[in-house]
Amino acid sequence: MAIFLTKDSRVLVQGMTGAEGRRHTARMLAAGTDIVAGVTPGKGGASVDFGERTVPVFGSVADAVEQTGADVSVVFVPPKFTGGAVEEAIAAKVPLCVVITEGVPVHDAVRFRALAAAGDTRIIGPNCPGLISPGQSSAGIIPADITSAGRIGLVSKSGTLTYQLMYELRDLGFSTAVGIGGDPVVGTTHIDCLRAFQEDPGTDAIVMIGEIGGDAEERAAAYIAANVTKPVVAYVAGFTAPEGKTMGHAGAIVSGSSGTAQAKKEALEAVGVRVGKTPTETARLMRSALGAR
């Protein structure tokens, strides 16, 4: 089992004919993803050859969905066009839209998140690495060769820490790993993923990676206390970040005592979540939770 993305997912890539879209489409195909279409306005009727697979290009998401049955979109579109691309996927009722683009204006993210919430689309991102269900499908830029299929669920704000924890626990493997993105406004939250992992019979335990800024981790702690019975371990990035500085992600800014790594660690530990001081220690805590070495 997996959450959000499975071997049956039919994926289209918005911006597939661009350099980044083409490169990562090839990687997704190599991971076993069923890429059924690319979408680039004005290039409908073209196709892109990826060796063993030739993928047709459509001029609109609606045409691609109608003709291929695509149910996932991955967006590799420049920031100023991303809002329109996501809104096009929402209008076409694509169930899952994965927004890789960094630097999306916040007002665009607010608008398309509201539209998605009122419709039938789940958004992952923006500014995220996407998600992967190892051995089944990959939608985004997460390397497929750093881990294996297993029964750990992972939700993370950080792309690079996602990769590190996947690698450190590669022998145990993952049901699904979701990089939700670190912007102030994202479509899918820690809580959304915690809920899905709790309900997934193929997930036995959960790794949650947070970082300084905002109160997402504190809210996740409250949700875990009330709703999650599976073991959860966590890591919070940013213990050494100076106050008042934005570190990496746009959402990772600490103001006074609000949003500090220590406050998040304390909130999580108060509800029984074991929090590692480093990613490697977090991996050890997960092994302990599963009775593995």
Automatic annotation (TrEMBL):
InterPro entries, sorted: Cit_synth/succinyl-CoA_lig_AS, Citrt_syn/SCS-alpha_CS, CoA-bd, CoA_lig_alpha, NAD(P)-bd_dom_sf, SUCC_ACL_C, Succinyl-CoA_synth-like
Gene3D superfamilies for the chain: NAD(P)-binding Rossmann-like Domain, Succinyl-CoA synthetase domains
Pathway: Carbohydrate metabolism; tricarboxylic acid cycle; succinate from succinyl-CoA (ligase route): step 1/1
Documented EC number(s): 6.2.1.5
Pfam families documented for this protein: CoA_binding (PF02629), Ligase_CoA (PF00549)
Highest taxon, organism lineage: Bacteria
Residue span, CoA-binding domain: 4-104
UniProt keyword annotation of Translocase present: no
Ligand binding (CoA): 17-20, 43, 100-102
Keyword list, A-Z: Ligase, Nucleotide-binding, Tricarboxylic acid cycle
Any single biological process term in GO: tricarboxylic acid cycle
A GO molecular function held by the record: nucleotide binding
Binding site for substrate: 163
Signal peptide interval: none
Catalytic activity annotation: GTP + succinate + CoA = succinyl-CoA + GDP + phosphate; succinate + ATP + CoA = succinyl-CoA + ADP + phosphate
Annotated catalytic residues: 249 (tele-phosphohistidine intermediate)
GO cellular component term of the entry, any: succinate-CoA ligase complex (ADP-forming)
Function: Succinyl-CoA synthetase functions in the citric acid cycle (TCA), coupling the hydrolysis of succinyl-CoA to the synthesis of either ATP or GTP and thus represents the only step of substrate-level phosphorylation in the TCA. The alpha subunit of the enzyme binds the substrates coenzyme A and phosphate, while succinate binding and nucleotide specificity is provided by the beta subunit.
Subunit note: Heterotetramer of two alpha and two beta subunits.
Family designation: Belongs to the succinate/malate CoA ligase alpha subunit family.
Protein name, as recorded: Succinate--CoA ligase [ADP-forming] subunit alpha
Gene name, Swiss-Prot/TrEMBL: sucD
